[in-house]
Specification:
Order of helices and strands: HEEHEEEHHHHHHHHHHH
Strand content: 5-15%
Bound molecules: 2-acetamido-2-deoxy-beta-D-glucopyranose
Shape: elongated
Number of strands: 5
Oligomer: single chain
Mean pLDDT: 82
Keywords: Membrane, Transmembrane, Transmembrane helix
Radius of gyration: 33 Å
Distance between the termini: 130 Å
Largest sheet: 5 strands, mixed
Strand order of the largest sheet: 1-2-5-4-3
Low-confidence stretches: 1-18, 36-40, 336-346
Number of helices: 13
Length: 346
């Protein structure tokens, strides 16, 4: 019993000595850290706090996205904010995105939109139920986005008519256009109709841009809804158009516009020495017969790719009514029958 008692006391003393040494070491360490902290760490900490407040301020429990080539912004609630979603957006949209990120409040979401007034004016941001749904929106191509028409689907709410801020999605889409171009309505957006990198303009202003007119002379086609070609207006214009090359002022205007759109969009992609580029740069002075000098030029002008063909401008050179891609004037078809019957040399 006694030996056990003594042993315990010894043990306690040992422990005490050990702790005292540790305490001294700890005090020295604290002193060193304090000196370090006052001289170097404190200023860094203040900086780090400022940065942290800048990056992580406000609500962080959501993700956002902006379509990589069309622009409109989406938000979806999450439990953790992920800054990685800032990748892959139109460069000019960054400021608006930042404004949305620092002001978004899920309490203000109503009717599938978060609507508020930011520094640039009233904005709306489409609110999606899940991140998966947002990924589906963001992965839509320009063509898919433009064709989507069903209400309640993944539709941007653009159809075959110009859209203003008055319609439901107007507050969602127009601030994006304004941020990208400064335009507030289709009239002021008109100069941007020719820009391949701005499909949203043609989605919102298909009438102004000429998506719904076969003889508009529009060159870029992304953002134009292809289904609009089936409307009675489009078909009527196609049916009544002349079957002759550059035979009226509308064709001449379309000719100028097509070549101007061709040049502005292919500059930097095609060589400046290319014959079509040289012709366009020189103001497209000439007529449809220019295209006949090289097979590839007629093909480029007359075939629809991601661009609109000039078939309605030069129907004869383009081989109407022989080509059946839906761009030949209707009058070529009715003219063709008697011409074929009367011309025995063919
Ligand atoms: C078209 O242009 C060519 C040469 O540039 C010219 O010889 C021809 O007469 C023109 N045709 C018409 C119908 O103006």
């Amino acid at each position: 019993m006694a030996s056990i008692q003594r042993f315990l006391v010894k043990e306690e003393q040992k422990t005490y000595v050990f702790n005292l040494a540790s305490l001294l070491k700890l005090l020295v360490l604290c002193a060193v850290l304090w000196v370090l902290g006052v001289t170097t760490l404190m200023p860094n900490k203040t900086q780090a706090q400022t940065v942290r407040e800048m990056i992580c301020g406000g609500n962080r429990d959501f993700v956002y996205g902006s379509h990589p080539t069309i622009g409109p912004i989406f938000v979806a609630d999450t439990t953790q904010y992920n800054l990685k979603n800032a990748e892959n957006m139109l460069p000019n949209i960054a400021n608006l995105v930042e404004d949305v990120v620092f002001n978004y409040d899920p309490a203000d979401v109503k009717d599938y939109m978060w609507r508020t007034t930011l520094s640039g004016g009233a904005v709306a941001v489409k609110h999606l139920p899940t991140v998966t749904e947002m990924q589906a929106w963001l992965s839509m191509t320009e063509a898919e986005a433009a064709e989507e028409t069903d209400y309640g689907s993944r539709s941007y709410g653009t159809f075959c008519e110009d859209r203003s801020r008055d319609f439901w999605e107007g507050d969602w889409l127009w601030p994006t256009i304004e941020t990208l171009t400064g335009a507030k309505d289709c009239a002021s957006a008109k100069p941007f109709c020719e820009r391949r990198d701005l499909p949203l303009i043609r989605m919102m202003c298909p009438e102004t841009c000429g998506c719904v007119d076969p003889l508009a002379g529009l060159y870029v086609d992304n953002g134009c809804r292809q289904l609009c070609r089936e409307t009675p207006e489009f078909q009527a214009a196609l049916a009544s158009a002349a079957c002759q090359d550059l035979s009226n002022s509308k064709q001449e205007l379309a000719w100028q516009r097509w070549w101007s759109g061709f040049y502005s969009n292919e500059r930097g992609i095609w060589s400046e020495d290319n014959e079509m580029m040289t012709f366009a740069r020189g103001g497209a002075e000439g007529n449809c017969s220019f295209l006949l000098s090289q097979d590839w030029m007629a093909r480029t002008f007359c075939q629809q790719r991601q661009t609109r063909p000039g078939t309605m401008i030069c129907p004869s050179v383009c081989g109407c009514p022989g080509i059946t891609d839906g761009w030949c004037p209707g009058s070529c078809l009715s003219d063709a029958t008697p011409a074929e019957g009367g011309d025995s040399s063919r």
